[in-house]
Amino acid sequence: MTTSSLEQQLADRGAILRGHFQLSSGRHADTYVEKFRILQWPDITGQLCAMIADHFRGQANVVAGPTTGGVILAYETARHLGTHSIIAEKREDGPGREFKRGFELGAGDRVLVVDDVLTTGGSVRDVLDAVRERGATVAGVGMLVDRTGGKVDFGVPFFACFSLDIASWAPEECALCKQGIALTIT
């Protein structure tokens, strides 16, 4: 799958939207990536997870993802790798994530961490911390879409199926607001 055909497929399925958007951070952008519009399509989600699996083949024996979208991606990527997946959930007693539900992870494990759309990397960093807390090694990070254009560094091997460099602005600096273009709150 080429980058341009992937972008076209994601746009056709409503996952890459163009316009004027208010992001969860409060900043404005002209492009928005809706992860759930990717995850609703098993065919394209499966293809993207296969790309991640192919990139990291032979390097991991466990795939981990954060709740919510990362659960689907960890499962599907693990299926392509012939291994198993685990879930990192938000801690109930403070910040970060942890492995609950009896998931085992230890010193002999090499973990591939996967997630859907990279914006700040916060949830991925929390999963990386949870992996390391268990004494396991991080094999790498795989993402469906990197919306930072490669600006986030996790200090481990990184692969994104698709990368966009999406600029964002403070509302008072937004040219789209000044042009009177209708704002969609995401």
Describe this structure in words.
This protein is an alpha/beta fold and 186 residues long. The chain has one domain: Rossmann fold (3-Layer(aba) Sandwich). Helices cover 32% and strands 31% of the residues. It contains six helices and ten strands, in the order αββααβαβββαβββαβ. The strands form two sheets. Strands 5-4-3-6-7-8 form a six-stranded mixed sheet. It has a four-stranded mixed sheet with strand order 9-2-1-10. It starts with a helix and ends with a strand.
What's this entry about, in short?
This protein has 186 residues and is an alpha/beta fold. The chain has 6 helices and 10 strands. It is globular.
Portion in beta strands: 25-35%
Structural class: alpha/beta
Instruction: Give the CATH class.
Output: Alpha Beta
Tally of domains: 1
Percent helix, as a range, is 25-40%
Question: At the third CATH level, what is the topology name?
Answer: Rossmann fold
Find the count of extended strands (DSSP E, 2+ residues): 10
Rg, rounded, reads 17 Å
Which shape, going by the Cα principal axes?
globular
Q: Give average pLDDT, whole number.
A: 94
Distance between the termini: 28 Å
* Spatial arrangement of strands, main beta sheet: 5-4-3-6-7-8
Please identify, by name, the CATH architecture: 3-Layer(aba) Sandwich
Number of helices: 6
